[in-house]
Specification:
The chain is mainly beta. It has a single domain, classed as Jelly Rolls, CATH 2.60.120.560. The protein contains one helix and 18 strands. It has one helix at 121-126, and strands at 6-13, 16-22, 33-35, 38-40, 49-55, 80-83, 86-89, 100-103, 111-119, 134-144, 147-156, 161-168, 173-178, 189-195, 198-203, 206-212, 220-226, 236-245. The strands form four sheets. An eight-stranded antiparallel β-sheet has the order 1-2-5-18-9-14-15-16. A six-stranded antiparallel β-sheet has the order 8-17-10-11-12-13, with no helix packed on it. The protein is globular. The protein starts with 5 loop residues before the first strand and ends in a 10-residue tail after the last strand. Mean pLDDT is 83; it is low at 1-10 and 22-45.
């Protein structure tokens, strides 16, 4: 995003608020291309670039759409739904690495996203130790029928953060780094940013993990959830989600 870009629109979409800008380039978008098992449209085209999106998940949708803003094209991965001001996964806990996920579109490569966590502690505690049970911020994410790729920034409900790269095919992922930390509760805010090849994760605006990876250079922010065993998928998730482009002097660490 360049400073010379101009504001194209600021509109309510579903329960979310969408801000777009349009680049001056008049070049048409090239055809979609496959890259390392995944796909993504070019970022260098005349389509509007999304600068910011925020939602409190008003209303009920399964899968979540909010006017077509949220997407998940993957046939093998679960969807995200929203109900009563909450967003959460729909997986059974027995489908392998079929993380529920949904992503936005139109963002530039440098991006940050954050979400407010909820979880019903007693329900999750029944399955604690047979987990993991994760809430996830997704970065440079994209999906196709047989491919899901991007960076997963996750917090297990034990509070331990982890960073991984999804490589495309079902079950193909790479663990990049992790850290030990305990304690995450309803109302906590998790956040992750990617600028260049540096990925940074935060809990309540305190940095907890940083990793470097140069595999994916475009894609979009999103959210994801993972459960194992038969805990209710609606027992934890998000009550708000925001994403925005990182450009100019904007500092994702203080957002």
């Amino acid at each position: 995003m360049k400073r010379r870009d101009f504001v194209l629109a600021a509109a309510s979409v579903g329960s979310g608020f969408l801000v777009q800008t349009a680049a001056r380039s008049a070049a048409p978008c090239p055809p979609t291309a496959r890259v390392k098992g995944g796909w993504s449209p070019s970022d260098n085209c005349a389509s509007p670039i999304v600068k910011e999106y925020a939602t409190n998940f008003v209303g009920n949708e399964n899968p979540i759409s909010e006017g077509g803003v949220w997407k998940n094209h993957g046939a093998h991965w679960a969807k995200v739904q929203k109900s009563g001001g909450k967003a959460y996964g729909t997986q059974t806990g027995f489908g392998g690495y079929d993380d529920a996920n949904a992503h936005l579109s139109g963002f530039p490569p440098d991006q940050v996203a954050k979400a407010t966590v909820f979880f019903e502690k007693q329900q999750v505690a029944v399955e604690h130790g047979r987990g993991p049970h994760e809430v996830e911020i997704l970065l440079r994410w994209d999906t196709a029928a047989d491919s899901t790729r991007g960076y997963e920034c996750n917090f297990d409900l034990s509070g331990s953060p982890g960073l991984g790269r999804w490589n495309g095919p079902f079950g193909d992922f790479t663990v990049l780094t992790g850290a030990d930390r305990t304690g995450i509760k309803t109302g906590d805010v998790i956040k992750a940013s990617i600028v260049g090849n540096v990925i940074t994760m935060y809990l309540n605006n305190v940095q907890v993990l940083r990793g470097i990876d140069s595999t994916w250079t475009n894609g979009n922010p999103g959210m994801g959830f993972f459960i194992r065993h038969a805990v209710s998928s609606s027992a934890y998730g998000f009550t708000s989600f925001s994403a925005r482009a990182v450009d100019g002097t904007f500092d994702p660490a203080t957002w």
